[in-house]
Design goal:
This protein is mostly helical and about 240 residues long. Helices cover about 75% and strands about 0% of the residues. It has 2 domains: about 180 residues, no CATH class; about 45 residues, no CATH class. Keywords: Cell membrane, Membrane, Transmembrane, Transmembrane helix, Transport.
Length: about 240
């Protein structure tokens, strides 16, 4: 049986997150190398990765980075891609609602996909043996989530500095780290086909729109189709 999380569990959170922590470094390098080819300076990239801290929206922003800068498009796309964090944080609410908001809200800044997946998986296992208000504490949450921030920031800067020397970093196969990481995350959260239907609907709709319509309309289509599917099947999954 899974042991409950101890009250002093920052180290345990780091230990659980370590495999994914190592996996994000390669595609942080890719982001930095791509940014160096758009004219984005290294300090600007550091601000982007440090203040936004959401890889998917940062890759999308880099692809749109040109002169004149489409500011409104980047803002809207960033909001749509990052809107998944609303649902992710809502999933943790039953286990964090007893914590003071002055502690929870700053901690949620560090909630990237990988750290959230590690935290949520451990929390669900603890929920089987203990009350909801004891399943998760902020020490474990920060141990599982915070280390991704300096790794993501640091390796993206490394990629920006080394980008001109590396050339086309995609040729080294680093890009495979991104889909491989998310396959691992999905496998860890798999609850059967019925629960996965919103994911599949979102993926299918986004793929079709991507193939038919130019631009980034597929992000909007995938986001809302997934939300609608989750709402429709919510009580049935």
């Amino acid at each position: 049986m899974q042991q409950p999380i101890s009250q002093d569990s920052f180290a345990q959170g780091m230990k659980d997150a370590l495999p994914l922590l190592l996996a994000i470094a390669p595609y942080a390098v890719i982001l930095g190398a791509q940014a160096s080819r758009t004219g984005l300076s290294t300090p600007e990239l550091g601000l982007l990765t440090g203040l936004n801290f959401a890889g998917g929206s940062e890759f999308a922003a880099i692809q749109l980075w040109r002169d004149p800068l489409p500011v409104l498009t980047i803002i809207l796309l960033t909001f749509l891609i990052n809107s998944r964090h609303i649902i992710m944080s809502a999933a943790l609410t039953p286990y964090l609602r007893h914590q003071p908001r002055r502690k929870v809200l700053p901690a949620l800044f560090f909630m990237a996909d990988e750290g959230w997946a590690v935290t949520y998986s451990r929390t669900l296992k603890n929920a089987a043996v203990m009350p909801a208000d004891k399943c998760l504490n902020l020490s474990y949450f920060m141990g599982a989530c915070f280390p991704f921030w300096p790794v993501w920031l640091g390796f993206s800067v490394v990629g920006a500095l080394a980008g001109p020397a590396l050339g086309n970093v995609e040729m080294y196969g680093f890009a495979m780290a991104f889909p491989a990481t998310f396959i691992v995350l999905l496998r860890g959260m798999w609850k059967g086909f019925r629960a996965a239907r919103p994911w599949m609907i979102s993926l299918a709709v986004a793929a079709v729109v991507y193939l038919i319509f130019p631009g980034h309309a597929y992000v909007l289509a995938g986001t809302f189709s997934g939300l609608l599917a989750a709402w429709f099947w919510g009580d049935k999954a």
